[in-house]
Description:
Blueprint: E1 2-9, H1 11-15, H2 19-29, E2 32-39, H3 43-49, H4 59-66, E3 71-79, H5 81-89, H6 102-106, E4 115-117, H7 121-131, H8 145-148
Bound molecules: 2'-deoxyadenosine-5'-diphosphate and magnesium ion.
Amino acid sequence: xxxxxxxxxxxxxxxxxxxxxxxxxxxxxxxxxxxxxxxxxxxxxxxxxxxxxxxxxxxxxxxxxxxxxxxxxxxxxxxxxxxxxxxxxxxxxxxxxxxxxxxxxxxxxxxxxxxxxxxxxxxxxxxxxxxxxxxxxxxxxxxxxxxxxx
Length: 150
Ligand code: DAT
Ligand code: MG
């Protein structure tokens, strides 16, 4: 079943010049970009986005980090897009992430771990509208689609 998932390139990804590299990993895998923008997160947005972590000891540091610079928000669409994206991203503790994943190839740290991806269908459904209006999400077909999913 086709799914939509929310991906963020975090401030370290933008500052390190890895926006293209990170988007490329998802794009080459076959996931379709249906929403894409450069944004600055606010405390109000992050309180919703990271509701599951609100009140934890690392929450203030997490918010300060995500607000420390622009981030790239995108919505990816495809069959099993949520799990496929999480596998492409790699484990949260980047030093344990498998080689070949974004974190395993490009990051070392649990806090500066470059990228966010919705963890499951419920999170994806909750997170996408936090960052994108319906009008910002485009429906379109690609000539390559039959070669990726059939
Ligand atoms: P993920 O981003 O892989 O979904 P998560 O939802 O558990 O991981 O945590 C969200 C972010 O919070 C994570 O990317 C980095 C930060 N974080 C998680 N656990 C942490 C910890 N123990 N110490 C510091 N930062 C942490
Ligand atoms: Mg998470």
